[in-house]
Amino acid sequence: MAEGLARHMFGTRAVVESAGSNPKRLNIRALKAMKEAGIDIVNQVAKPMDMVDIAGADVVITLCAEEVCPVTPAAVERLHWPVADPVAAPPEKLDGAFRAARDEIKQRLAAFGRERGLLQ
Question: What gap in Å lies between CA 118 and CA 77, rounded to an integer?
């Protein structure tokens, strides 16, 4: 969701890549939450950390909360935004958890984008 939001919000003003410490298939609830926000992420693919050039990045943003966060090179600016993994929510609260995670990430990306001049 973070990759889709960042690509949508920043457009060509930033190169956005996403990876996870334990990537899985795209969750149907993530697709639904993003579609509700007008963003189609159906073609996104979850990637492992070794598929992204972290050392070549300007900024790495980690979203891990309860799970283990990846190690980043010392020279790369790292921002940590602990967002609860919506998959961990009780079954009856899953849809709401995905919406809450989407909204929290969107809010943080908006502040980041304003600060870095990535939003118009």
Answer: 17
| Residue linked to tokens 């502040």 | 111
DSSP 16-77: ----BSS--SPPHHHHHHHHHTT---TT----BGGGS-GGG-SEEEE--SSSPPPP--TTSE
Q: Which two tokens stand for residue 85?
A: 């993994």
pLDDT above 80 for 66: no
* pTM (predicted TM-score): 0.92
Domain that includes residue 53, residue range: 2-113
pLDDT of residue 65: 77
Q: Which CATH number does the domain housing residue 29 bear?
A: 3.40.50.2300
- Answer yes or no: is 119 within a domain: no
For residue range 68-112, list pLDDT tens digits in order. 777 777 789 999 999 999 999 999 999 999 999 999 999 999 999
Whether 118 maps to a domain, the answer reads no
CA distance 72 to 80: 11
Compute the distance between CA of residue 96 and CA of residue 7 in angstroms, rounded to an integer: 23
